[in-house]
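Please study the protein below:
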Amino acid sequence: MASTRANKQGGFMSVLAATLLAGCREWGIELTGAQLKLFEIHYRMLVAANKRFNLTGIVTEKEVAIKHYLDALTCLKTIKNGREGMRLMDIGTGAGLPGIPIKICRPEINITLVEAQQKKALFLERTRDAMALDGLEIVCNRAEDIGRQQDYREKYDWAVARAVSDLKIIAEYGLPVVRTGGHFLAMKGPQAETEIKTAVRAVNLLGGTIKKSISVKLPFTGEARSLVLIKKVGPTPEKYPRRAGIPQKRPLE
């Protein structure tokens, strides 16, 4: 059962909701009651399914609100204004992060969640149905395979990846699905500059150019994050992405 705290009006809300409200207000984002309810549904399903699906090591309301949901919403620092029909792909989404929080706050964006593990994809399908989210597609496949399929290749306005792999590796996953003129956003830790320097050639080879790195601090904890924004300036050569497993084993130089 969710823990609660009093709000200024004398009512009560969950710690999850209170943390999200306060954190988002720091960034100028106001959440509605309906949006908070969707976050609550995702959280309850995440905790209930966690042992079976191995989704996260973080389960307390405050930690999930900060390290998963607010962390995911750092993407809105760059994806400021959605438009009807905009397409975004979340690569290696796991428990639906950052894609589901983005969808809650920007419902007009059509989002595709890509997850290679079948059990996690099943969790995502059940969660989408419970949240009744339209315009949220679940694809169970490897990112390398998705990037070669005509239904997805160079069809997206945005691709995002919240991953620990090196920038030049995840660029090979993300840039092939982005249309020319679109963007790939890599969510990295505070030491992104080193990765950026070694990824320039690979990004250029894939049809992209690194525009900037945005430094963000999470509310409450002050933990540092970097958002690496890459613009797609030309088509990705047909031979990329390489077959499954190769980008990780032999990163582009």
